[in-house]
Fold each of these.
Amino acid sequence: MKLYAYCVAECLSYRDETIPGLADRLVRYIEVEELIVAVSEFQSDNVGVTRQNILRHDAVVRRVLTQTTPLPFRFGTLVTEESLRSFVTARRNALLERLALVHDAVEMSVKIIWQQIGDDPPPIASQSELGVGAAFLQSKRDELRGNERLATQANEIAEWLAGGLQDLIRKQVVNIQPTQKLVIAGSYLIDRSSESGFRGSVSQLESQRPELHFLTSGPWPPYTFANIDLEFETQFGVS
Amino acid sequence: MSSPFDQIIVGSDVEFADDAELSLLETLDHVLNRGLVIAGEITIAVADVDLIFVGLNVLVSSVETANEVLRERGKRPTLSAGLTEAE
């Protein structure tokens, strides 16, 4: 039988074994190398992406978060107990370092949605004045100029946002997609005690730029800051 | 600690009535895309994942036209409906 893994934590003074996990199996805790992993038994070989499963996963991680900040496993992690123990043992130091990074912290999310702003650049010549090839090249040039303009605007917004939040954040991961409506998706690791200050700062920033739509959520377990393998892969150029 | 389900705030000029759907989409975004990975150990039923991306696109595209989307809610395949069917 496999185990469904929810999160790993450094210490838990109280281990709540009444929490229903996926498939209605109660959560239990495995201690490996002084680390504690919340798991539940799982009979199937596949984890369905269902509303109930996703909310159960998040609820278990969130319950642990009430005591200490854990490293959440990605949804759908099925392991044998042997491979789980092997994983934790082999990566104990990396896990401890990552747990230290997220200690007493939570993740906040800020998404910014925009209607791409600014006027279109004036065309150099009207379409009727150009041949087919020249018109095509001009349209491509206009497209590139437009993308450059969007990238400039998006980066300016990202810098403005970062500047307004920098005093509150430990670490951030910000994705900028200038050609998309969801132009900025930012994840911010902050002290638990900074949550209200963070919200206040975002509200203040929001009032400065009424043309932008903000979607703020949190506090989350540090999903964005949990993985250790991704950083290893990035460091060594593996995508 | 408060729950993000009560804490999602949408920009001031956007009327987004269905906070529950937004909350679910935000949870999906965090739980599915991120987290500690044990190489080769993730086994999710991917058949439903398209629905999630459809749902996220609906979220993004609908923020500007929330009222219109809400009026047409019954006409479109929503994320919620897809997930409910999968349960």
Amino acid sequence: MPESTLILNAPAIQRALTRIAHEIAERNEASSEVVVVGIQRGGVPLGRRLGALLTGIWGQPVPTGSLDVSMHRDDLDRRAAPNVQPTEIPFDVTGKTVVLVDDVLFSGRTIRAAMDALNDFGRPRRIQLAVLIDRGHRDLPIKADFVGKNVPTAHTERVRVRLTEMGGADEVVIEK
Amino acid sequence: MSWNRKHLLDIESLAPEEIITVLDTARAFKAVGERAIKKVPALRGKTVVNLFVEPSTRTRTSFELSEQRLSADIINFNTEASSLKKGETLKDTARNLEALNIDFIVIRHSASGAPHFLARVLHASVINAGDGAHEHPTQALLDMFTIREKKGRIEGLNVTILGDILYSRVARSDIWALTKLGAKVTLCGPSTLVPRVFEQMGCRVTHDVEEAIRDADIINLLRIQHERQRKSMFPSLGEYSSLFGLNKARLARTKPDALIMHPGPINRGVEIDSEIADCGRSVILEQVTNGLAVRMAVLFLVNGGKGPQEVAP
């Protein structure tokens, strides 16, 4: 049994998301230009929550979608094929500010793949990145615009984000 | 459930969960085909050889387009112009192709077991695009995908396969897939083409077409393969059509929501009346569309599969 340490509980996750939503609203005055795209799988429920929070702040609906990056990964011939989840972007991203949402930012490779995948759907005006946890150890020159919590980790540790939408309670733990 | 196979050689050796993994993956690839940009970089830098040692238009075209949409590089090996005509063995041909550092071979061959043979002697991933009267796994997978998409499930459905079963690799692959996924399979056709021995595969065999189609949720018509028959298995195409062909009168006696499938190419007026092939209950063209998604999924999955690194000398 791996040793696990709780780093965020349910209220802390909620507070972090609320703060991120306000930061997104502060950074983007033209609210009608903003769309939220969650990266499968953990980023999708987080993206929906942020979309709902932004809808509340701005008083108008914020389009929210999901993006699977499996087909754009750079390690497809080094591992078993990933389970491909649905990509649903039922709106045009061209000219918009796309807020990409993921649960954990680590190597940055998922974000690179996501930006490639997003290009197949149009040409966003700009892309911003929101993550619940930034655990460091980047392999690529990628940086998040909005971070729930910075968590210094060892390379071998695992950060698990559990969300009610995926079964279980809201919590973030580190496993050694 | 993840996929760990390096090859797709048949349906017989797949677990039901593996079939479901292909179908789930294919759903995502079908969505890719509906976008403005229909191409993804999943097989960028990989080379696929389409080795079709037997004529095929639709399967080869479908594989080619699937490979292109995955950004692979493609070599089409045409038997008409190949060294196989000059007497080179399949093994030598394949080894020569492998010396070009290819990653996948998609093979269609008239000899049953040819893909299995290649999988033993090559490092490349091998995908069976139809071998003799043995199997045609991607056809069965696209049939399962189509049924699941239309009916929401496969388990418990009554599926009737009607026509030339004896010579059909499609029938064998379909029977394996359907029985593994819990469908009830009925085979029907002339007794010469639908021998009782198929009951050993877990199917019901009948030679009474009315009875075969009455309770069917799916009617899968198979082409009468004139070219594969060594001797005459029934008196004439006209007689086949009147005894076993799906016509308007017969269709009226099926369940109102029964779907009509056919792997193509169809012989209009033989196994299926022209107007039925074009009617709303026919999903023949959707099968073609789904074939692309399923073949993309198969290539994507075997790319990550790890097989034995040792090959036979």
Amino acid sequence: MVPLDWYLILSATVFMIGVFGFLTRRNIIIMFLSIELMLNAVNISLLSFSHYMQDMRGQILAFFVIAVAAAEAAIGLAIIIALFKNKATVHVDEMNEMKG
Amino acid sequence: MIQQLFFAYFSAAIILLSVLVITRRNPVHSVMWMLLLFFHLAGLYLFLGAEFIAAIQVIVYAGAILVLFLFVVLLLNLREELKTNRFITSWPVSLIICAGILLLIISSLRDFLLGPIGKYSVEYLRKETNTVALGKVLYTEFLLPFEIASLVLLVAIIGAIVLAKRRVKSH
């Protein structure tokens, strides 16, 4: 039997890799993939809690996380396309039109 | 023993693939590694007895979200991006902060206590099957959140079309 802590450590590691990618990359698509990575890390811990507590609610929450991730990806990629039409770049440091 | 080996392979692959996702210069390569990562995650979910979630991980994440990502990456002309720096110049600071938070989380696990055990044991799920049990909880206890999720998806569809469509000159 694999202990629950191993799953939680795996989940925390993947989450922190996602945070690191979000903080250090400036390509907006990779930043988006980092957010997906973080959402998946949360899913790992929700499902491991669900399994070890023998409760269905963890799986329901993971289900909702996947639904929200789908909505977020659709909206975010539409925003990226709209930005690319205006600026022809996906580098976030060059998107400073709203600076006073 | 075989369980530990299984978990060791999947966790090593997941961590390696997530590092590959955030370090590739070309976004197409990142998306491809992400695809492999999602299949490994689905395998881990099967190991945790969540068959339905593993299936929608493959169908929704790998089948829909990543194809959307791939479409957008291929739609944009990213030749300029390949020449720029991969990370920001102060990336070691971020690495130290992330490693510190990770150590903090791992050290707090020692004081973690599991809550009361529910009724969905492995034997119960073997009799009932995972999808039936999930559906029963989803359509009774979580009916309102389920409806709200459908509304969220509807707003996302409309918003994506409004944001990404070509502006048509009206006159």
Amino acid sequence: MSIAIGDPAPDFRLPAVAGGEVGLDDLAGARAVVVAFWCNHCPYVRAWEDRFNAIAREYAERGVATVAICANDPTDYPDDSFENMARRAEEKGYAFPYLHDATQGVARAYGAQRTPELFVLGPERRLAYHGAIDDSTDPDGVGRTHLRDALDALLDGRAPATAQTPPVGCTIKWSRAA
Amino acid sequence: MVAGGARRPAGTIAAVPGRLAATYLYSRECPSHEEGLRLLREAAAAQEVELELEVVEVRDDRDAEARGFPGSPTYLLAGRDPFPLEGGGHAPRADACRAYALPGGRIGPLPHPDDLAEALRSAARAAAKERT
């Protein structure tokens, strides 16, 4: 079960594919933070990838920080290894740090189940929106722009009108050793 | 390769009537499985292909391994998978969602309807040839 709207976001500090580590406290100056559970192999992530990257780039200029976290066990899904994460971020020009949750502890702390699955944090780093990026894997079929709407509301000092939508994507690939 | 190929204007695909054995393999872990089945039925109706359809839920990894399941959904037309595998590949797992190449170099969780229609047409034609 995921954290609830209004709950404080679990802290984390994880290795980034670009080097070093990134933690939630590094983003303290941001007006809002998007934590996206992400991966390389999932067709849903790949369907939304360019749109999400564009949103991250656009809203960074307005003070929103974005991080993506891959928690998948790469044993059965080698596309999701740290090396392939780095390759993917480079190829696609990710506008956000791409972090590796090797222990899957951060995914469990947030209660994430799928990729992509978003946790948007507002004031005091409390959960303000949880769910999908928008309502269609097809960029030409988008009707409701959930992430943009949530960020616009937060930047305007309001709570998002829609705080939860069902995340649509692949299941997180939990370690079988766990 | 069917996916990503040249597109025909809507309505110019000649119908190929006939019967065709089809298997729809899916996992409940992938949210597009109902839409994928609807796509298949709609494409078959549009192509006037009568499907002898078997819908199979892949429930566990043993089943996925036995079937060589590349991810949900997978379409088998006359026993053959008409779509190329996208991405780096992974072990056959019941919770795997399949990636499909789409026009414009995009990737999505389902094939483009035109690609599915073309695959059906091609398979129906081959099946008809075998019957005669």
